[in-house]
Amino acid sequence: GAFNVEKLNHFNGLYLRSLNPAEYFARIREFLPAEWLAYRGEQYAWQAVLLYQDKLTMLSELAQNAWYFFEDPCPPWEPGETTYNLDSVEKFVIGNQQAAGVLAQLYARLEALPDSEWDEEHLAPLVDGLCAELALGKAKVMQPWRVVLTGDKMSLGFFDLLRVLGKETVL
Questions:
Q1: What is the SS3 string spanning 37-61?
Q2: φ, ψ at 65 (rounded to 5°)
Q3: How many other CB atoms sit within 10 Å of the CB of residue 64?
Q4: Number of H-type helices and E-type strands within the chain
Q5: pLDDT digits (tens, 9 = 90+) for 85-106
Q6: Which residues lie closer than 8 Å to 59 by C-beta, 6 or more apart?
Q7: Which of 168, 169, 165, 167 lies closest to 66 in space, CA to CA?
Q8: What pTM does this model have?
Q9: Contact 143/94 with Cβ under 8 angstroms?
Q10: Residue 153 to residues 15, 87, 144, 157: CA-CA distances in angstroms?
Q11: How far apart are CA 83 and CA 163, in angstroms?
């Protein structure tokens, strides 16, 4: 039989998902840049990288997928090379007439949320309430925030992103 890379990647992904969290972190730790571990400590790195256990097929994929947990995206208006996907910024922030208002209203609600309630149980109803109030779908409310926080339209689940980044970083 022929060697099948896709099948190998599939089985490697299954293996990664079968590891308990401690084993997974021990294996992926060698793929983490030292500055990532120093950024907000090993416990923060643990929380961030565990979100990817069900998503990766190879440990080496983490750096390209999780970087925004360990460094702030460089916006297009700052000097230097931007880390933002400019197509996503145009579509979900600049080209979205509702984005500025949605960002401001969600910011106010997130800011008012007590630190002790910074979890999906409290964040989800807050977002749902804003969606209902503005008669907008969740994507119209969450995508502009996702782009602002990560520099792109693709990331982990919105509430996982907010929870792990933490209130101070999100705001």
A1: HHHHCHHHHHHHHHCCCCCCCCHHH
A2: -105, -30
A3: 7
A4: 11, 0
A5: 888 888 888 888 888 999 999 9
A6: 16, 27, 28, 31
A7: 165
A8: 0.80
A9: no
A10: 28, 9, 8, 11
A11: 22
